[in-house]
Amino acid sequence: MIEHRGTDADRIDELTVGCWPRSVIGVTGPPGVGKSTLVDALVRSFRGDVDRVSVLAVDPSSPTSGGAILGDRVRMSDHFTDDNVFIRSLASRGQGGGLSSTVARCVRLFGSLGDPLVVVETVGVGQVELNIADLATTVVLVLAPGMGDEVQAVKAGVIEIADVFAVNKADRGGAELVEADLRAALALRASHGDPDDWEPPVVAVSALDGAGVGSLSTALQGHAEWLGEGERRRQRLERAVRAEVRAAVMDSLSERVDAALNIASTQQLIVDSLSGEQPVSHIVRSVLDSL
Ligand SMILES: Nc1nc2c(ncn2[C@@H]2O[C@H](COP(=O)(O)OP(=O)(O)OP(=O)(O)O)[C@@H](O)[C@H]2O)c(=O)[nH]1
Ligand SMILES: [Mg+2]
């Protein structure tokens, strides 16, 4: 019901209005860096402190029935015996998007059920993932040695939204290099920033053998404490609502643009454009005017 737009979704929006879990931890990063393995290890560590943890594994690149769902289930299977860990996979529903809205709705639904802690795993570093990361109160960017990820992350602007950096697979060589690169990039950022800003810690971990998971958990807790209950947290939640509204508006606009492209008059303009009678900019204006 959560995944279908329309009246059911609207009903959930009404029922969950103003509901947020105390912490929403967004775990993002390039494919294969070990996000799911790390989430698994973190959840085990969180369960010492909280009664219940919900996990949403989001894969924007895979269709609903794709393999990622099974993959995540298999990797996170440790917790299937733990009734207080709820794991749900969400994949993109082919065309049309709507994923960010669905994730936001799920997060608020968990909040309305009284869940203190929700972990959202998203793969990749594109726009959809950035939207999803915006829904989190704490964003963890996971990198791993040997992938050239740090450069990619800096380029994609993800470094700007991360509150904590985890350099996973520290059991392998090369983690120190990734750490050093990150620290250099962060020092550069800090030199331009406000001294009141949060300084994102860089934590080396090995999700596989558990080394550093405690430190990562402490770093996440530190960020939650820095956010507190006041103005900083309020700004975060405002950012989350803005991201949710933006994603929903974009989805709906995108549908309307597709519809406008298919009406007969637009089709005619497209044909005319091919024979040199209509500049594309005129078609763009006509589509915009029809929205
Ligand atoms: N050596 C080592 N391997 C790891 C570590 N963490 C994860 N892996 C391995 O890396 C591979 C990918 O792990 P996943 O947890 O599926 O990575 P992911 O980032 O969730 O992958 P996607 O969701 O597909 O993007 C698996 O083979 C893991 O066993 C680690 O700390 N050290
Ligand atoms: Mg994964």
Description of the structure:
By secondary structure, the chain is of the alpha/beta class. Helix content is 52%, strand content 14%. The chain has a seven-stranded parallel β-sheet, sandwiched between helices. The protein is globular, with a radius of gyration of 21 Å. Magnesium ion is lined by residues 35-36, 72, 121, 123. Residues 31-37, 75, 123, 168-169, 171-172, 206-208 line the site of guanosine-5'-triphosphate (GTP).
Number of strands: 7
Which runs of at least 5 residues are low in confidence (pLDDT < 50)?
64-74
Radius of gyration, rounded? 21 Å
N-to-C SSE series?
HEHEHEHEHEHHEHEHHHH
Give the number of helices: 12
> What is the subunit organization of this protein?
single chain
Bound molecules: guanosine-5'-triphosphate, magnesium ion
Q: Termini distance?
A: 28 Å
User: What about the largest sheet?
Assistant: 7 strands, parallel
Strand order in the sheet with the most strands: 3-2-4-1-5-6-7
Q: Shape from CA axes?
A: globular
Structural class estimated from helices and strands: alpha/beta
Helix amount, in percent?
Answer: 40-55%
Strand content: 5-15%
